[in-house]
Amino acid sequence: MLSGCASCVVRGDDRMINKYSNMPMYSQLKGLILQKIESGGYPEGSRIPSEEDLCETYGISRPTVRQAIHELTAGGWLYREKGKGTYVSKRNSCIRIRKYNGFYGSLLAESIPACKRQQISIHRVTAGEVPILQEIFFGIDPGSAFVCSEFLILEEEEPIARIGSYMPLALFPDMLEGLQANRPMLDLLKGKYPFLPHAAKSSLEITSAGTEDSPLLHVHPGQSLLKVTSAIHAKGGQVVEVVVSLFRGDKCRIMLENTLHG
Fold this sequence. Notes:
Layout: E1 9-12, E2 15-18, H1 25-39, H2 51-58, H3 62-74, E3 78-81, E4 85-88, E5 95-97, E6 117-126, H4 131-136, E7 145-155, E8 158-168, H5 175-180, H6 185-188, E9 197-208, H7 213-217, E10 224-234, E11 239-248, E12 252-254
Helix pairs in contact: 1-3, 2-3
């Protein structure tokens, strides 16, 4: 048994948790588990010790263990199987999306080569069915029609992002049939020069994979995703496309590069 000042330190295997450290104990446990994963102590696909075992090993409470496991699961390092336990996720190499400029995923800007797109669906929706459209097109009639094109972006045949592109049918009346017929975007935009993409405004937030996204993106439910919502504007300022992108946190690193001009 530890005694004296050493009582503030709890040993677990060859590592320690310091109960008097400024770093929260759940954060220390996260670090220890990550070290085990990265060193091969917990191989990919292996089951890590149970919450009870971790409590006993490190002399900490169950809420502390649960917080650490929850954050590692949300970050994609671990995943849970109901009734079985918690397992180490497969780690993949990251795809770096350099100089992200808000047009990524835009069909009007033809930002993604067709060979890297896997179509999910092309269909008609109304503004009332998609809350973000009502937010961006403030005051729009809920019955206003849009063409929605949903697709996956692939790298080495692995999905890294799910994209939803929304374009007003009032501006592009032939877009739905044209996309369904796989016509080139150049042909679909003939005579539509006032509506060509010119600027983009984007917002970023962290979200979690739901039951619909998980099988498409090959991730576990609850895994963290980076959600980017971009409003694509024509030169006159009119919004001509809304792009909603869900990026896999374990596969993508978006590189934002800017330069200050004197």
